[in-house]
Recover the amino acids of this structure.
């Protein structure tokens, strides 16, 4: 086989990516459950097939037996008025809103489209019409949900399939499959929709009744002190649905969508786009020195930082970078580093870079996190990693900070303590339950073990908890 | 070893390898697990009729590819609740350092995801599973010529990245490179 550079790179990429995925818990168990579900479904289909054959065999006899000249074949009343299955599993509790709420024609047509779509997927169990909205001159969009219980599909989690039909589409199309627990009590659904008559990309937003204002942001900017700030634009809702053309090249691939009920924030979420902004990398010398300080490969450090520059359109060409701390993270194969970047404009912010390696120097995991601007180098810094079971919180108190700290994660489900750790090392709290909706929260609390003084309080609210910190008092802590 | 034990042993032994292949086909960890699970359910139905148990893995992979080609399994970009900072870099040439190599690999991965499912499957089988053209054709149930053309077209598309980056894709001076005439 020839070994061109492309082929070699392709082999490396495939191997690198394939080995980067975490192990599955109990693979045989989930397969066995799926097989059991498959057997049940097939036996039901078999029974249905037998019933059909029986009917076909008996029907001619019945027709002959009842043939007395009277009209027994008069059409029955249409059964198309079957009510839409309303939410009954606590997954969603949405209804058609606005002037469509009492419009039976719109409901019937929309339901027919969604049922047609659902029939293509034998796993779905009923379908729920979520919203029908106008897309201006383009026509109507409709959004529907189908729920599949894990006991029906054999998958490890209940699923909700989102169907969307737009102008010109013959029927609704399954757009995404979400975990049902992520859908519980959701106030707003937001999806990028490709195409449309004009060939643009659209942001489709469906809001729960009661959400009267929705806005979105396509741009994140950094102020003089490095504070991220966003400008929001209002979206016009028609019957709970908004369809808005997206900018051709947003500077930020993470669109943010917020929904309000009156003045109350009811939803705050992200939509990840496929396109990315540009940016400029750190200078070679700065990058090389930083990599040397961290003790990591310059290419890997560069790739991690490039994730920031490209994602947010940052110009780091004249920025400086200083290492605050680096070290190993308990329970992880790799290392992490805290880096402070200073922009030429005077703004500065901190990054967490986390590396892990497998044999041969391949990258297993790379994470880049923003840390609040103005955080002193002696303050604890925390970040969060998604794990198979819960999440892992990592806290570092730089050597310039307290000598010994206690940390705990407080959530509605209980408190997970991790105490007695020395400054300059990372401590981790594993299996932290992840809040499932914005109104839930957890609190990471870090205190000086000697004096008991509170060093850090991090309110973790979905979906803000990754890189935005608040210092608000928390009800969970009773203060 | 009875039928159930055989199947159990196969799943226990090959699950992770199959998920790795599934991940390269789907680009998504959870989808990969679902894909493998579905393929194993189908395989289980035919387990008694599969005489060459050494060929089971190829059968499962073929089933995975067929399932992945199913239109309804294609996932589009959707909402993600978890606000992870996007880390896939893009665009621009930024010098000669190692970072460029990582950047290039990320672009390759992205481009690979954009290939049609069957074309991607050919590249995965050839360059990850290390199957020959004949073995790939046998597994996919197509002609060797089809494998050659699909691989060639797939590589051509990936090669465009190198052209954009101003990089050559000439044969590397490695131990497997052909000797100069």
């Amino acid at each position: 086989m020839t070994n061109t550079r492309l082929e070699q790179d392709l082999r490396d990429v495939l191997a690198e990516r394939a080995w980067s995925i975490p192990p599955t818990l109990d693979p045989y168990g989930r397969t066995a459950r799926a097989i059991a579900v498959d057997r049940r479904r097939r036996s039901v289909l078999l029974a249905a097939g037998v019933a059909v054959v029986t009917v076909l065999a008996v029907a001619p006899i019945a027709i002959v037996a009842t043939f007395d000249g009277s009209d027994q074949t008069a059409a029955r009343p249409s059964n198309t008025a079957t009510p839409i299955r309303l939410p009954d599993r606590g997954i969603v509790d949405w209804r058609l809103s606005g002037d469509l709420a009492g419009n039976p024609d719109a409901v019937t047509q929309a339901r027919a489209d969604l049922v047609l779509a659902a029939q293509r997927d034998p796993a779905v169990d009923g379908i729920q019409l979520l919203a029908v909205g106008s897309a201006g001159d383009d026509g109507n969009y409709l959004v529907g949900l189908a729920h599949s219980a894990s006991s029906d599909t054999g998958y490890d989690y209940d699923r909700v399939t989102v169907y969307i039909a737009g102008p010109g589409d013959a029927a609704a199309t399954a757009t995404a499959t979400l975990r049902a627990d992520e859908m519980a009590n959701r106030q707003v659904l937001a999806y990028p929709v490709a195409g449309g008559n004009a060939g643009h990309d659209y942001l489709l937003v469906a809001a729960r009744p009661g959400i009267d204002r929705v806005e979105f942001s396509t741009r994140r900017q950094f102020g003089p002190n490095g504070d991220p700030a966003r400008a929001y634009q209002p979206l016009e809702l028609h019957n709970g649905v908004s369809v808005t053309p997206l900018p051709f090249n947003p500077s930020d691939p993470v669109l943010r969508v917020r929904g309000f009920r009156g003045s109350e924030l009811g939803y705050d979420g992200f939509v990840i786009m496929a396109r990315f902004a540009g940016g400029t990398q750190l200078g070679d010398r700065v990058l090389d020195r930083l990599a040397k300080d961290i003790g990591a490969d310059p290419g890997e450090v560069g790739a991690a930082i490039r994730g920031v520059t490209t994602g947010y359109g940052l110009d780091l060409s004249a920025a400086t970078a200083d290492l605050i701390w680096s070290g190993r993270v308990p329970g992880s194969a790799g290392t992490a580093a805290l880096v402070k970047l200073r922009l030429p404009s005077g703004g500065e912010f901190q990054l967490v870079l986390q590396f892990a390696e497998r044999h041969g120097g391949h990258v297993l995991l790379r994470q880049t996190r923003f840390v609040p601007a103005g955080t002193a180098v002696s303050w604890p810094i925390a970040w969060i990693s998604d794990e198979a079971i819960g999440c892992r919180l990592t806290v570092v108190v730089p050597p310039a900070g307290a000598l010994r700290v206690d940390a705990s994660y407080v959530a509605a489900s209980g408190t997970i303590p991790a105490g007695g750790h020395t400054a300059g090392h990372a401590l981790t709290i594993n299996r932290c339950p992840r809040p499932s909706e914005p109104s839930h929260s957890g609190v990471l609390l870090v205190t000086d073990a000697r004096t008991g003084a509170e060093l850090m309080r991090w309110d973790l609210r979905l979906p803000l908890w990754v890189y935005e910190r608040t210092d608000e008092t928390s009800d969970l802590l009773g203060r | 070893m009875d039928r159930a034990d055989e199947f159990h042993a196969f799943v226990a032994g090959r699950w992770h390898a199959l998920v790795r292949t599934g991940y390269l086909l789907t680009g998504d960890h959870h989808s990969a697990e679902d894909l493998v699970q579905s393929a194993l359910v189908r395989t289980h139905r035919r387990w008694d009729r599969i005489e060459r148990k050494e060929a089971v893995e190829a059968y499962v992979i073929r089933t995975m590819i067929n399932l992945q080609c199913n239109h309804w399994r294609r996932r589009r970009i959707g909402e993600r609740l978890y606000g992870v900072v996007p880390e896939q870099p893009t665009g621009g040439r930024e010098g000669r350092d190692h970072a460029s190599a990582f950047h290039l690999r990320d672009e390759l991965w992205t481009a690979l995801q954009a290939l049609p499912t069957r074309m991607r499957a050919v590249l995965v089988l050839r360059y990850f599973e290390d199957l020959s053209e004949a073995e790939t054709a046998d597994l996919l149930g197509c002609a060797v010529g089809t494998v050659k053309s699909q691989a060639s077209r797939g590589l051509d598309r990936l090669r465009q990245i190198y052209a954009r980056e101003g990089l050559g894709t000439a044969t590397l001076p490695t131990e497997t490179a052909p000797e100069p005439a």
Notes: The helical segments of chain B are 3-26, 29-45, 56-69, 98-114, 117-127, 133-140, 144-165. Chain B touches chain A through 72 residues (CB under 8 Å).
